[in-house]
Amino acid sequence: MFIQSWDEFAKQAERLYLNDPINCRLCLKYRNEMLILRLTDNHTCLQYKTKYAQDVKKAEKFMSSLLRHMASKET
Amino acid sequence: MLLENDNFLLELTKLFQQQRVKNSGSLSLIMKRYDGRTKPKPKLTKKQRLEQKSSSISHPTTHETVVEYKCLVRAVYGSKKLSTIVSSKDINRFQLAYSNLLKANMDTLKKKAKENKTTGQTSTNTNSNTPLSPRMTTATTTTATTIASSSSSSASNQQKKTPTTPAKRK
After folding, report:
1. Does domain B1-37+67-108 have CATH number 3.30.720.10?
2. Can you give the residue ranges of the SRP9 domain (chain A) (predicted)?
3. Predicted-assembly ipTM surpassing the 0.85 threshold
């Protein structure tokens, strides 16, 4: 069940992650001519598929922000 | 294999190159938050659970502890598995290097042929949106001036969208 628009995926993914950050993981599968992103918290799973190069930039920005949030200090 | 951050990035570039050469197989990258545990969390006995409940009711927990999380990054290609742990003080360096790596290596994807927002150039995937968009913006911003200087085609568009304008003319 793939989400069609990137903005929708980003919004839902952020919501899902902030809901339960310790149990969420982002998986990125890179094949020849296809890129699949999957964010899951073991209850629900959001997937995004693309074959275009312009989505790599968006995906990479999203991954960086998520990486920063994951490795941050929290009070 | 658990590696240091720099080693992990080096090995990851090698994996990308291998994938390019072989032209088959999928490279998976996984990111997850990690709280530094090395032992599994044991389940509490009934007694401990009751104690925990009663203590939380009597002393409401004030979160003053600072928890420092790390990030676990894994890469899998075929049978090769790599992993690394990034803590918050290495995050800046790692994140820059990692994003550069991804940008540089994920280049076997297609380029989109659509050109939007350029001056009316036709592409293979044109739809009627592109020629309308500059005209729509002019119609919305300065209706008075465009009414006076409108060409016939745009006038027809305006008549469809803003039915009040012919009334104004009269």
Report:
1. yes
2. 3-70
3. yes
